[in-house]
Amino acid sequence: MTEREFRAPAPGGEIVGWVGGSGPPALLLHGGPGMSDYLPELALELSPVMTVARYQQRGLVPSVTTGDRTVEGHVADAVSVMDALGWERAWVIGHSWGGHLAMHLAVAHPERVAGLAVIDALEALPDGGLAALGEHLMKGLSPADRAQIEDYYAREDAGGGSTAESLEALRKVWPFYFGDPDAAPPMPEMQLDLEGQLATWASINRHFEHGTLETGLPGLRMPVLVLHGDASPVPSAEAERTAALIPGVRLTILEGVGHFAWLERPGSIRRAMEAMLA
After folding, report:
1. Could you tell me where the DSSP H helices lie in 123-162?
2. Predicted local distance difference test score (pLDDT) of residue 16
3. How far apart are CA 236 and CA 232, in angstroms?
4. Contact, 62 vs 87, CB < 8 A?
5. What is the pTM of this model?
6. Is residue 58 included in any domain, yes or no?
7. In a domain, 196, yes or no
């Protein structure tokens, strides 16, 4: 697949991304929050059946590194990307935090969303599976590594974290995102916007308190796919709770698959999207 770069004007600067493929337009939202885009392989998988746009979310180069990193700010940036691409409506496909963001985009701007695909997401009801995710990722660590990471996360929550330490902690737990940790690929080179990550999490938690998705998702009237691995560190029960909120949803649980379905079972997301488009 050949991708072309695009630039979307946004408050404070530009959002930079890449678009390629053929077929109905699809906006691809990466996880994090505050992480660099890691979805080129998923874009490639979907490119024979969809025109896929992915972009670096605000906070990291080549996109603008400052500005609003609340849920509302990220939703506004996604709309700016669609405007820059000339897309009146598009499928919105999000992974992890990106799936959570996709749900917020669909609730805030349903007129812009032709269909929604939520892939192994931070789910809609408090706490979205976050506590279970943390416990799953830690349980395979040595006692020394677990104690070190728990100490670091406590400092990070108190505002004493650093980008280098956060990425090192992620590197240690990375294999446990996969159904078979021993077969996990190396973690890709990542950047981290730690300030933005903390700001986004604070905003996510405010929306949990206000019930934004819990009250908004039942009003959706569009095709919706909730896809989840049954070996994911986010329990599939959380995906089932989210799916139960959405009229006409298609829930797909992939057996033996962890957090990154397109890496662990190549073609699985493309097949699921072909079925939705059909």
Report:
1. 130-139, 143-157
2. 98
3. 7
4. no
5. 0.98
6. yes
7. yes
